[in-house]
């Protein structure tokens, strides 16, 4: 029987603002489920114009920046 391959490798995540408080508490559960990931977490006070090449995943709250046109984006939560 073939087993599904587990995702593995380095995952570079950049967190901004409110996303820090939403994501950091959930990391132990994520790593327990995906133990073959090595995480590099960058925390920033605000969204930057830094190229997306420096991160595999960017999590932040608020409206997209004008410079975000070349990024794939989707909402993951609604905040009231």
CATH architecture of the domain at 9-62: 3-Layer(aba) Sandwich
Strand order of the largest sheet: 2-1-3
Query: Would you tell me the structural class of the helices and strands?
Result: alpha/beta
- Average residue pLDDT: 80
Biggest β-sheet, characterized? Answer: 3 strands, parallel
Number of helices: 2
Question: What is the β-strand count?
Answer: 3
Q: Class of the domain at 9-62, according to the CATH hierarchy?
A: Alpha Beta
What is the straight-line distance between the termini?
Answer: 46 Å
Q: What low-confidence regions span 5 or more consecutive residues with pLDDT below 50? A: none
Strand proportion, as a percent range, falls in 15-25%
Approximate helicity band: 10-25%
| Principal-axis shape | globular
Write the CATH homologous superfamily of the domain at 9-62: Periplasmic binding protein-like II
**What would the CATH topology of the domain at 9-62 be?**
D-Maltodextrin-Binding Protein, domain 2
């Amino acid at each position: 029987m073939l087993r599904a391959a587990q995702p593995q490798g380095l995952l570079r995540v950049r967190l901004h603002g409110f996303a820090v408080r939403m994501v950091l508490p959930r990391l132990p559960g994520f790593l327990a489920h995906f133990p073959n990931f090595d995480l590099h977490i960058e925390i920033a006070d605000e969204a930057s114009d830094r190229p997306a090449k420096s991160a595999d995943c960017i999590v932040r709250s608020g409206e997209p920046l004008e410079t975000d046109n070349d990024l794939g984006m989707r909402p993951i939560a609604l905040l009231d």
